């Protein structure tokens, strides 16, 4: 049975001679990396645990793809260009068929987005995957909220302004329907909902295209309601969402019905679409910027001043406030947790 160093060399080590900014790759105690001139680093880490973040019996290639995709999505959410990744893989046992599939899924997505695996670790224990990604952004020396312009080459959560539109890319909710399909026994990886759950597409190109048009943004990992609440708190604004404007994909409607589809968009999570705010005058440019990517952009609400004690997300139907149902995912929900919009 191969040892950990042989596993790393066999499945994860690649020729990095052409990778931008890699001064020293795997094989020493640390990787040595150099950001480009006038650039700053964007760094994010996520852990995926078997049975919590992905089904342990899912195809290994999908697990490898998904583990990297959710990390790339964090770079996309800030409009960063992917550069480097670290992988810490914990395995209950050495299964080389599984490792071959996992590595194939991981490397295929990494190559597509130009991100180089520059180091990591393999150890024994319950199956879990921790990935740290590094991206590059132009170095900006201004305040988060510029007094005269929202156009800055970084997407953050704290830049939304009163009157900004709330927009979302693609078809949210599909991954939630895919999870339900998997739990019900569906194993057809060509099913569009199941594919959205097992092999999400990080919106890296969309983040780069929109980073100077949007005022604030993040990726949808825990549902639109919960994630929009993060923007509201960071920007000290409320948001009104129009239920009738939520994008409901035909496949999502077929799988869950209209009410279930809306619930999936609002609270389902695992979509990794981009949820953004932007001035209304930037909308047409944003739609045009996404057209070459064959990616839609839907207006679902508007940012507004806080009424009451704290920012909140308000659901409306034709301008009439509606009661919210359900709650976005949290690993450790507080005992007194209330609905996002309460």
From TrEMBL:
Annotated SUPFAM superfamilies: PurM C-terminal domain-like, PurM N-terminal domain-like
Enzyme Commission identifier(s): 2.7.4.16
Ligand binding (Mg(2+) 5): 222
Domain PurM-like C-terminal, residue spans: 161-311
Binding site for Mg(2+) 4: 29, 44, 74
Boundaries of every PurM-like N-terminal domain copy: 27-136
The UniProt record lists the keyword ATP-binding: yes
Superkingdom to which the source organism belongs: Bacteria
Residues reported to bind ATP: 120-121, 157, 221
Catalytic activity: thiamine phosphate + ATP = thiamine diphosphate + ADP
UniProt KW keywords: ATP-binding, Kinase, Magnesium, Metal-binding, Nucleotide-binding, Thiamine biosynthesis, Transferase
UniProt-listed InterPro entries: PurM-like_C_dom, PurM-like_C_sf, PurM-like_N, PurM-like_N_sf, ThiL-like
Binding site for Mg(2+) 3: 29, 74, 219
Binding residues for Mg(2+) 1: 46, 121
Further details from the record: Reaction mechanism of ThiL seems to utilize a direct, inline transfer of the gamma-phosphate of ATP to TMP rather than a phosphorylated enzyme intermediate.
Entries under PANTHER family matching the protein: THIAMINE-MONOPHOSPHATE KINASE (PTHR30270)
Protein role: Catalyzes the ATP-dependent phosphorylation of thiamine-monophosphate (TMP) to form thiamine-pyrophosphate (TPP), the active form of vitamin B1.
Protein name: Thiamine-monophosphate kinase
